[in-house]
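Work package 3, deliverable 3.1, input record:
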Amino acid sequence: MTSNTQVIYVKPPKEYPIIGETMKIAKSTIDLDCALSQGDIIIKNLVLSVDPYMRGRMRDPSIESYAPAFEFNSVMTGDTMSVVIKSNNPKFKQGDLVYGKTGLGYFEEYSHVKGAYADIGYVVRNDPKTTGLPLTYYVGVLGMPGLTAYVGLQKYGKPKKGETLYVSAASGAVGQIVGQIGKALGLHVVGSAGSDEKVAYLKELGFDGAFNYKTQSIDEKLKELCPKGIDIYYESVGGEMLEHVLNHANNFGRIVVCGMISQYNTSNPYPIRNIIYVLTKRLTMSGFIVMDKENIAYEEEFMRTCTQWLLEGKIKYRETVAEGIENTPQALLDVLKGKNFGKQVVKIADL
Amino acid sequence: MTSNTQVIYVKPPKEYPIIGETMKIAKSTIDLDCALSQGDIIIKNLVLSVDPYMRGRMRDPSIESYAPAFEFNSVMTGDTMSVVIKSNNPKFKQGDLVYGKTGLGYFEEYSHVKGAYADIGYVVRNDPKTTGLPLTYYVGVLGMPGLTAYVGLQKYGKPKKGETLYVSAASGAVGQIVGQIGKALGLHVVGSAGSDEKVAYLKELGFDGAFNYKTQSIDEKLKELCPKGIDIYYESVGGEMLEHVLNHANNFGRIVVCGMISQYNTSNPYPIRNIIYVLTKRLTMSGFIVMDKENIAYEEEFMRTCTQWLLEGKIKYRETVAEGIENTPQALLDVLKGKNFGKQVVKIADL
């Protein structure tokens, strides 16, 4: 038997998750030499992706939402990159890299994946072997966050050259790509983030304007940096930020609702008092989830395009890499509190 | 000189308009025999339309919004039907019926309209002479409210047979048409209104369900009457009603924001705390204004279709007709307070 450290989801937190209480690290064992039933695979997990939407899965399972609730006292799941070490499934060969997709990859060192689960939760993704791009990119800029940026801006933002795009959480896993695609499309791009270091990074990426929403007046900075008003708001924050943007939105503006992280960890949602601007300014506010079928359909086009951009250096991508599976709960908490810089991932093993 | 009673807008109200203080009736005179400059016309006004959106025009003119602010101490304007009694403009002949459109028709007994204003504010609409339909219909079911219902439901609601449509303010100028079009398209249609008499009328019109939002629990009635959830919400009310609908909306629901009357007359907007459903349920919330060019473009198609429906009895239309120009301020106040039943109009003269 081989030792197998796991990330366990215990129960729903009231506000922020509490390490050791609502999620924890546990030691288990796994038999890597067991005989595999038809369809089963054994994988060694290499990279785990921790993302804000995971907070929404930490709920009472009787509440329906887009991503299934985590099961109490079970191994947590999310997007992962792994390598197949043993297979009795024709879709997966030993040595294949596999992507644990749509939040289904197990957060543990090794996984014995049953056939039916392997078929829906994992897909071969050997691209890193030929592109030479870091494995971590495949759960970030080339994974769910990248696709989210791409689909959200293009399909729901309907950008037109010369328009103003404002991105909140702009140095995050999704925001930094949104901004860079925006620049490539000829938009005036403004972003906000929660530290001066992050703001400096946004300017490095070519954002036309950037500010620290924690130390500067959101209202004044939006006025100053978006002098023509906001045509597209790529929304990841919600609450007070949304209220400010509604004040500065232009007629016929589009609000692309990708996330509302400020509202995930509170039992007292922020009350929005100016939603009437949706009417008077004829705004369109569109919520979307990248995992919906019609959005996942963009994946191939996106991966091809974005790989090219990365290889040509047209898009940069900043990551914070935590080392070791035991740091996963803290890494997730950091994301929910905005302490990460760029895409937060956890590297748990080398290939 | 001929006596000419006028409706005067005095100044912006803080909450509800106050008759005699923020809007009033005034006596003036007009010279109906004067020589007309090139382009001028003199019209006798027959029907005035009072509508909720007019409250938004009673504001500080420095605040921009979709409909221009009323000018202080000036004749109020809105949609009207009138007859030309004298013309020095090739577009208008004596005896022509004219529609004072996009809120530009003068609210007075007679108007001497300058050429430049006549060209943008008035259009010949002799249809009632051949259809035999009441003049009042041409500022209601066949005017701006009818077009609003038609465009809003079709273009922004994107209805699919079998879906559930919920209409607030359902017995009003717009709502009663939305519901009837919804039934014609094969939707499950539910409406709410503010009196049992109005609710009975909705059932008469063929609504599948209807309730009195003042005496019944909105939450319980939505649960009961929309057992499959709400796919399309035709929004005219805002505030607490919107919050309830967000709770009952289905994934991929559309919220067509036509108005938010509950928020027009208050200095303390209702705080919405569940806007996060836009994200988790992937809702689209679209504000629209019928006067926008791309919506006005539907006018011809709409008038042809709707005239046919009315003549065939497929669509019914309920009105409250106030008699006499001096009752205009009260009629408008009634609309803002929901005291009218159906479309509120003011008849000020016979043809």
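DSSP finds twelve helices and 16 strands in chain B.
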